[in-house]
Every structure is written in structure tokens, then in C-alpha cells.
Specification:
With 153 residues, the chain is mostly helical. It is 61% helix and 0% strand. The longest helix has 22 residues.
């Protein structure tokens, strides 16, 4: 039985996430080969975007991974305003779809963390309680499907 491409990427993204990689790495790494990257390059490129960029709980890491794929698909190669507008419009379109699904792009809001909650850089231990309390798996899967669709467009 042949799997549809989006499902294959979604499964790979979740496998990376369950191996302990951050959300951005988990979304980008399955696309390494079609993006012309090695797995190592993809993992390093996305490493700082996890947990809302450096665990600051800003923009969702999964969405950041999707944005990296979008940049490959339609990113500008010059300072031409029309080229920049094209990628910005694509990212905004993807942000709207993500927000419709999850209510926000903010990692802090997705995790229901108080705005005054401060965390260090040390990542949380991955336990079943970790997975049960967070929408991260759904965000990773959603962004992997969206990235697959961008590559197929």
C-alpha cells in the first residue's frame, strides 16, 4: 500500500519529535532530501527555532519549520519587493491556516503558559505526561502536512 506523500512526511516528522528533536527540527528534517540538505544540515538549521525560538515561547517551532520549507519553495533571491511579497504572502497564508486550527502562533499560548512564567533553556523531559499536556504533536503533524503540500504545489 503506497502512502500519500503528506502522510509519509507527517509520520517521519512525528518520529523525529518522539526521538526528542524539537518541533522545528521535526518538521524540517523529513524534507531534507527534497530541499537538497543532509539530515544533519536540516537538524542544525532548525535547532534554534524549537520551543518558540530558543525556548523563549515565541512563534511555534513547528510553524518555524514550515516557514523554512516555504522559504525554499518561494523564497526571494533578490531584494526585489515583488519577490519578497510572494514569500511573505505565502507565510501569512500558512499562518492564517495554522491560527484557524490552533488559535495562535504563540508557543506560550499553545502551551497555556502564563505570560509571567519564566523558563530556562533546559528542555523539558519527554514523558507521556509531556505529550498528553501539549498540542505539539498535532502542530508538528499539521505543519508537516502543510510543508508536503507546498512541495507538491
Amino acid at each position: 500500500m503506497q502512502r500519500y506523500a503528506g502522510g509519509m512526511y507527517e509520520e517521519k516528522a512525528l518520529a523525529y519529535f518522539h526521538r526528542g528533536f524539537n518541533c522545528a527540527q521535526s518538521v524540517l528534517a523529513p524534507f531534507a532530501e527534497p530541499l537538497g540538505l543532509s539530515e544533519e544540515q536540516a537538524l542544525r538549521l532548525a535547532a534554534g527555532f524549537g520551543a518558540g525560538i530558543g525556548r523563549m515561547r515565541l512563534t511555534c517551532g513547528a510553524f518555524s519549520g514550515l516557514t523554512l520549507v516555504a522559504g525554499h519553495c518561494q523564497g526571494n533571491l533578490s531584494g526585489n519587493p515583488e519577490e519578497k511579497e510572494r514569500i511573505f504572502a505565502l507565510v501569512r497564508q500558512q499562518a492564517e491556516l495554522f491560527t484557524q486550527e490552533f488559535g495562535t502562533l504563540s508557543c506560550r499560548e499553545l502551551l497555556h503558559l502564563d505570560e509571567h512564567t519564566t523558563e530556562g533553556a533546559r528542555p523539558s523531559e519527554r514523558t507521556q505526561a509531556y505529550y498528553d499536556a501539549r498540542p505539539c504533536e498535532r502542530c508538528v503533524a499539521f505543519c508537516a502536512r502543510a510543508a508536503a503540500a507546498l512541495l507538491q504545489a
